[in-house]
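Help!! Second protein's tokens look totally different from the first
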Amino acid sequence: MKIMVDFEECLKDSPRFRATIEEVEGDVCELESKLDKLVKLCIGMIDAGKAYNAANKQFVNGIRELAQQSTKDEVIESSLTKFAESLQEMINYHTILFDQAQRSIKTQLQLFVKDDIRKFKDAKKHFDKVSEEKEAALIKNAQAPRNKQHEVEEATNILTATRKCFRHIVLDYVLQINVLQSKRRSEILKSMLSFMYAHLTFFHQGYDLFSELQPLMKHLGGQLDQLVVDAAKEKRDMEQKHSTIQQKDFSNDDTKLEYNVDADNGIAMEGYLFKRASNAFKTWNRRWFSIQNNQLVYQKKFKDNPTVVVEDLRLCTVKHCEDIERRFCFEVVSPTKSCMMQADSEKLRQAWIKAVQNSIATAFRDKGEDAEKLDRKSSTSTGSLDSGGETKERSLKGETALQRVLVIPGNSCCCDCGQPDPRWASINLGITLCIQCSGIHRSLGVHFSKVRSLTLDTWEPELLKLMCELGNKVINQIYEARREELGARKPNPGDPRHEVEAYIKAKYVDRRFVQRPTDDQLRSKVVSLSKQEKRLSSSSDHMPRAPPPTPKLRPGSNSSGQTVKSADSGIQNSSDESREMPPQAPSASNNSLGEAGRDASHGAQAPVLGGADTPPMAMPSTLPPPSPCKDVSFYEPKEYSPGLQLFWASCARSLPDMAEALAHGGEVNWVNTDDEKRTPLIMAVHGGSLVTCEFLLQNGSSVNQQDAQGRGPLHHATMLGHTGQVCLFLKRGANQNAADIDEKTPLSIAVDAANADIVTLLRLAKMNEEMREAEGPYSQSGDETYQDIFQDFSHMASNDPEKLNRYQAYDHQKP
């Protein structure tokens, strides 16, 4: 607020003038305080900005160093260099902004405080002093006695002089006040406006800079999808090559060394040997030897220049050495010296001796004639690494997954835009997608869609079966039920990305096209599913029980992780699509139960897992098979909800009804308070279906949520003897140490039921967890044996459930 003082009023020195002066003085004091605070804050901001710029410069230098390190990759080097230049330019703009802030805020406002407000304070001191003098003169004049003329004259003269001085000082003070009040507005606004213009310039410069950079950024963004695909393909190829090589028999590594005179690098043979030193101590050192250019040389490190042992093999001979204490020794003798060497095995010694002899013979032969002979000879040896295994593995893993999924109705085209020949999938929805729609699904977040490649990723058997249970046709009947009614157009291949993205968000995030059921429809659906569950239970109760299999060794695995038939296991290759359903599987008319009957992976006689001193666990064969959901009864609920539909659909093994319940807003971890607080995942366990459990877990179901008895899904799967489900839950991080209200853990339940399979899985998982904890927080997934065994059980549970058909019921074991 601008306060001006009237000059006429100040001469009267009225109370109104004094009140105005007091108000002005208070306002100026507060103004000085606020300006001092603003200047200090500005100084702090500038200091922080300078520190930010210094840190930012170090970051940009780091980008430059990374670009220099990536000189072999032109795209990364040029892009990072351009980004570093742009960021450096932004640092320069920041520096200019902070300099302008120092000039406009700090310097200008400090000058205003030091000059104008200080002048005001000085004028105030003079005014206060002369005011006191005037007050004293008035008092003295009033007190002068009438009869003392000289005192009266003196008091009158002093009062006159004081009043004259007061008028002069007070006019100057009022002038200073009015000038300050007028100037404060312009100084503050001028300072802040200059600062804001500096910001405007800064952001304009930044916008112009990044506008120039935008085409490059868009170009790189366009390349990223392909780069991601290429990187995933390279990773996949490396994993396949790693798997192929890892599964080769390396028990006889000493047979891998072969002499090849026509090797591309000119090295006919190379490998590690121990060499005896020629000094007095005769020490033995391990060195990397090679035969190249008719010379025998060795190296200690790769960067070291090779040390020549024999300059010309034509002038030397090689012989066995049996007269020294060390084994597998041989000696290369030349006219000037001899070299004693030691191989790691007898086969390696023979290979090296033969290689030296062949080199000697080759050196004397005609080069052209012998080249053809050696080429024919080495063709068989150098071709020992068969690449057919890798191709076969790729076929078993990637192509089979693609072929199996694409034959499902509607899966041959993208679920959302209709693009033919899709190569991606959403595993929690069970649909196939083109590359553009897969990118949009990935941007939705994993709580809506989990994207995986049908050709580049490894597919677990239970996940592959889940994809085969659903498909584009089933899901579109749910998520596009009202699309035509609402007049929404489905995207076509080649439509702009933003249109496809809007449609996908409306379909899966907003669920705009889902047909919401009425209360009567929902009630009818729930009652139908509960009756369907009872029919399954009834048919299961009357099924003949299969005889238990005899204990066998753990089945082997081929290169793709598929279970293969071995001489002592009798397990068929799981990639066979035409295998028979087990005779005890219940029949159902519903499509969704086609695979469910085959994945009811109940407890089985355990393969003997462990060392030679680990005795096989005995398995009782007199227990009756449990019925699916046999201890679950249908109660008339307080209200019907999508969660209740999911609850009964999980028990009835109906994946389409489960997907429909989730689309209608059913909570995946819904709790049935009328049924001991059981969840859909627990009901899926009682339903006996591995695929329904996998579907719920992919859609965010908690693997450790307990019921009113304190039992989680792992407890229930153990009690029912569902080995495949136990394996699945352990892979998904189920807590096997959790105890129910009876203080029973899954392990104690399995031990009481004498279920060797489940006991073995639980103990292996516990050992693996302890190993990871012992190795530290950065350990990998664990022991390879653990991984192999769990992989075998997963394949049997999904592809050969008849191998796990020994039923175990915990309640029959309880005393």
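Here's the second one for comparison:
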Amino acid sequence: MKVANSVRLLLFLASFAAAASLVACKQTYIVYMNAAHKSAAHVTHAEWYEAHLESLSIDPARHLLYAYSTAVHGFAAVLLPEHVELLRRHPAVLNVHPDPLIPLHTTRSPHFLGLSPWPPVSVNRRYSIDPVAAATDVIIGVLDTGVWPESPSFSDDGLPAVPSRWRGACEAGVDFPSSLCNRKLIGARSFHRGYHAAVATAGDDSDIPRQEYASPRDRDGHGTHTASTAAGAPVANASLLGYASGVARGMAPGARVAAYKVCWSNGCYGSDILAGIDKAIEDGVNILSLSLGGGSAPFSRDPVAVGAFSAMQRGIFVSCSAGNSGPTRSSLTNTAPWIATVGASTLDRDFPAYVQLGNGERHAGVSLYSGEGLDNQMVPMVYGKGTQVGSNSSKFCMSGTLDPNEVKGKVVFCDRGINARVEKGQVVKEAGGVGMILANAAVNGEELVADSHLLPTVAVGAKTGDLIRAYLRSSSSPTAMLSFRGTVLGVQPSPVVAAFSSRGPNMMVPHLLKPDLIGPGVNILAGWSASIGPTGLAKDNRRSAFNIMSGTSMSCPHISGVAALLKAAHPDWSTSAIKSALMTTAYTEDNTGSPLLDAAGGSAATPWAFGSGHVDPQKALSPGLIYDITTEDYVAFLCSLDYSVDHIQAISKSPSNNCTRRLTNPGNLNYPSFSVVFGRKSRRYVKYNRELTNVGLPSSVYNVKVIGPPSVKVSVKPTKLVFNQVGQKLRYKVTFASTKVGDPVDTAFGWIIWSNEQHQVRSPISFRWQLL
């Protein structure tokens, strides 16, 4: 009997192990199909995908997650390794890749950007209509963590009826009745099958975790913040617990918002993102804003790039964040040329706080702490007082590392890094500390990002941190006072490129300069979810209708909103025309008249950090000339990258494209910027062609000016462009000749500027010398 039981137990364990192994082998894949193989017997693409899976003995009911109809020809499915091999061998399949996990990456910014007040006070004479008012017909689709519809930023007071062309929906879900949408928030959808499949195949048999909403409702706050930054309604007396008070509004307060929830507790899955883009295109959005992005990958394996290509084909402008991995070189994401890649900069607003040390030194920092300060008496300070002798983890104030006996009643000095900034404050508070000084690491430099900490906290730069550490080492009983001074405006210099903003050069396509431009992304006030405190920590019980956040996630919707204004003013412009206008009119001097600085070190910034410069909405409305790019141009660009025909067809959805046309060099795309790569011994000459379209006065004459390094001779032919009518196109050629044998680490920058009395059309140039 015992033997039989043992055998049964062994059989059970074996079957359990086999089942567990099967689950572990399962994974979600995105499959791109060649539409030329679609049979006429299948009315819809979904029917074709299902029949295709059935022909391979794959049950669509169990495996198929999404059947895409617009963004791509293809589907997402949970598959076993043998399924993947069958698919890859089938002639109808163009590409198969795993479903990637992609991370998520205001009262002052409209004024700082020079935007007109809302409601409009005058008519724009240049266009006969006010572009801000006209933006009521523009729809911005935001792919993020959802939306908090009760936020005052989504009030529809004064807005006319929803545009009749809108085909979207307000999907009901958990704690989200469809009645919550209105004339401002006109649509809301949720996409979680990719997320759910990842949880299930990871061995978790639960559905979406309880803390998540299986609906468009935003529990995280990120999506509400980005959506309200792009197109939030004006809200008087907005602030974060008293900080940054004023009238909060989005960049395009008249535009409509459609929220697509594609991001969940552990990030955003490519299959969900593609489904969101697929539906947004069908719904009829004009602008897509995606404050998310993964690492560098070929465009054919990047769902954001593939979906954005389809959006571009339908005249939808796509804005994406560049990433928060700066100041590391080549840390960019979302580098496809049909995407506007946006870096981050500071505003002229700050939240000063001060550290007074026992030796009399006073150091400046920043903070959004809103409670009682520590400015009445000196408090003892500690640093590195941990529970484990010899461990440095306590210096980072990581969970469980601080010794309460050493910390209680004291100000704790913490190094930035490893864990979240606000989490460090919670660790200090739980250990009995009464305050915190948070010091930047060398990589963060002197850039100060303010947080709404749970206890009195002052964030200081790396150099200040070194001075405070020296004091801590030299004093046997160090003390400090912390004080907070609220909000100040008119900070100089500003804007400054954020240290965290991801940088070039572009490793995916070295001949394409990215990012494209920068916009406000540091300490931005915008709408927030009422289900979470401003720190995002579970133990933060404070609630605010607004929050202050930093990241390229915040700069991206600024550009999305400004693009909506341009779309309203120029409804016939292509997506590349809008991006060209934003780029060629961007500025590169701060409010002191000096070149833009880089917060990562304080030296002058370069186009690898700011692209074409900082967005200037007013000038972008009238750029004079634009660089236009067609879908066929983008396909020729892809062909010049030596992608396989299948991969190009997967991106372009053209079943017959065989690269009959390709660019001689990827840098020959008619882009508003230049990236020149010289070989060390060969390729000392690089030639590019460009074409400019007149969108200014009918009779316009432009002369060229070249700014470049001594090591490169730049020749432009012709040097004068004479336009006789609006819409006329004229070409020019540029020859870049290196006058030296470069080193692989050598870099330099320059500008090509076409100008007349009314306009300056500026294009940055980056130069690199490398072994080829």
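Reply: Different proteins will give different token patterns, so don't panic. Residues 631-664 form one domain.
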